[in-house]
């Protein structure tokens, strides 16, 4: 099991760890055919399905099995008491943060204005909790939920509800960031632009106060890039023309919303902005490659599932579908295997970024890895156990901590 866990840290060209992964996974799968007790089976299956490097599922799983393990000494009771006390403290903090987020969300009016869109502030907050695990980053978690929520809302505008002329107009308004032009928008888009403008300007002011540099111009450009990429997807689907798989993925990395969200985090965490020699006249943000690797992992994982699993009526394309159209004669299973290979390659590149010297802080790189780890749980539509863990964890955030 430890060898299998270690193999998850492989990088491109690391044949030894690749061999270790094949060897250890084969041995573990063979052990599952032996006469093992239920706890051993559970541990092996969890290791194979949820390696620590690439998933949060085992971190979210309850630890009730500890009391039943053979050879447990009396000190474990003290350890469990300390763990439970810490859990109550952290949960109380999460409840306060969740209350702040719910208050902001209700005051924004987006949930009431856009009945067609997803209304899932707790789920969006769970992204923030997963990315920023340090209890001391409470303010950052609350602020990060705001761009996350707008990515989901704007995605639904393009995929589910918006008409083509409205979407073109909305994209133009975001590109120009013009309040006067926004008056031409339908009410629901006008409301969305108002909230988007408020959180972007507020965010820029917060970063300026903390780090002495205002990234508002860059963030506006990234919102424009996101909307333009959504519009490209919409036009592909409206015309019935599937792009090449590589073109779809390149655009899909942007529509994942990850570059935009992690750009907010990039600025939140400082990242020696003053020393980056950033020219405010430039249109593009010099973001680290880790952000785009996480985006590719999310896009590919999500495309293994389906928008229908999110109870949406819209459709925004799929890498798998583009790949099958481009590679006539390939089976659906071979396409899935190809996607999993791409995800594995992205993880190897992400590992390399984290292990190599770079100008970005360890906490920021850890946050990026945490986002990638959360993807396999959030978008693993076929794994009901994984989704069950996610739902249980979400519910636990709303429970009275005194009852736990």
Give an account of the 3D structure:
The structure is a single chain. The chain is mostly helical. It has two domains: 1-51, no CATH class; 104-397, Farnesyl Diphosphate Synthase (Orthogonal Bundle). It has helices at residues 2-7, 15-31, 38-49, 57-60, 75-108, 110-113, 121-131, 138-161, 164-176, 179-182, 187-211, 216-239, 245-255, 258-268, 289-304, 319-326, 332-355, 362-378, 384-396. Helix 8 (138-161) packs parallel to helix 12 and helix 15 (289-304) runs antiparallel to helix 17.
Fraction of residues in H or I helices: 55-70%
CA(first)-CA(last) distance:
32 Å
Discrete helix count: 19
State the order of secondary-structure elements, H for helix, E for strand: HHHHHHHHHHHHHHHHHHH
Number of domains: 2
* CATH classification, class level of the largest domain: Mainly Alpha
Mean pLDDT: 86
CATH architecture of the largest domain: Orthogonal Bundle
CATH superfamily of the largest domain: Farnesyl Diphosphate Synthase
**C-alpha-based Rg, rounded:** 22 Å
What form results from the Cα inertia axes? globular
How many β-strands, per DSSP?
Answer: 0
CATH topology-level name of the largest domain: Farnesyl Diphosphate Synthase
GO molecular function, one term: terpene synthase activity
Protein name: Terpene synthase metal-binding domain-containing protein
GO biological process, one term: terpenoid biosynthetic process
Pfam families: Terpene_synth_C
């Amino acid at each position: 099991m430890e060898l299998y866990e270690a193999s998850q840290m492989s990088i491109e060209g690391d044949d030894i760890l690749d061999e270790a992964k094949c060897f250890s996974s084969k041995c573990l799968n063979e052990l599952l055919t032996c006469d093992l007790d239920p706890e051993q089976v559970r541990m092996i299956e969890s290791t194979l399905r949820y390696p620590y490097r690439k998933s949060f599922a085992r971190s979210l799983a309850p630890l009730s099995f500890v009391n039943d393990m053979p050879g447990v000494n009396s000190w474990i009771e003290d350890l469990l008491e300390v763990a439970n006390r810490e859990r109550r403290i952290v949960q109380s903090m999460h409840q306060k943060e969740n209350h702040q987020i719910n208050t902001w969300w209700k005051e924004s009016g987006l949930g009431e204005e856009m009945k067609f869109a997803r209304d899932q502030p707790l789920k969006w907050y769970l992204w923030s909790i997963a990315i920023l695990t340090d209890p001391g980053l409470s303010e950052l978690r609350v602020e990060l939920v705001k761009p996350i929520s707008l990515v989901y809302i704007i995605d639904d505008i393009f995929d589910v509800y918006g008409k083509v002329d409205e979407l073109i107009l909305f994209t133009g308004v975001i590109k120009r960031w013009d309040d006067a032009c926004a008056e031409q928008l339908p009410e629901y888009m006008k409301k969305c632009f108002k909230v988007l403008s408020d959180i972007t300007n507020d965010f820029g002011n917060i970063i300026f106060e903390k780090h002495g540099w205002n990234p508002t111009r860059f963030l506006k450009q990234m919102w424009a890039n996101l909307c333009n990429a959504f519009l490209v997807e919409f036009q592909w689907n409206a015309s019935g023309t599937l792009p090449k798989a590589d073109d779809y993925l390149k655009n899909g990395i942007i529509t994942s919303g990850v570059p935009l969200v992690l750009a907010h985090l990039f600025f939140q965490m400082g990242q020696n902005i003053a020393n980056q020699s950033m020219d405010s006249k430039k249109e593009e943000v010099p973001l680290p490659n880790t952000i785009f690797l996480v985006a590719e992992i999310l896009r590919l994982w999500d495309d293994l599932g389906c928008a229908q699993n999110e109870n949406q009526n819209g459709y925004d394309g799929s890498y798998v579908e583009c790949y099958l159209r481009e590679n006539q004669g390939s089976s659906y299973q071979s396409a899935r295997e190809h996607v999993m290979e791409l995800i594995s390659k992205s993880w190897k590149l992400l590992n390399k970024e984290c292990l190599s010297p770079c100008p970005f802080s360890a906490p920021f790189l850890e946050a990026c890895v945490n986002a990638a780890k959360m993807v396999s749980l959030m978008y693993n539509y076929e794994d009901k156990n994984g989704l069950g863990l996610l739902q249980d964890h979400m519910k636990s955030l709303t429970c009275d901590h005194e009852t736990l």
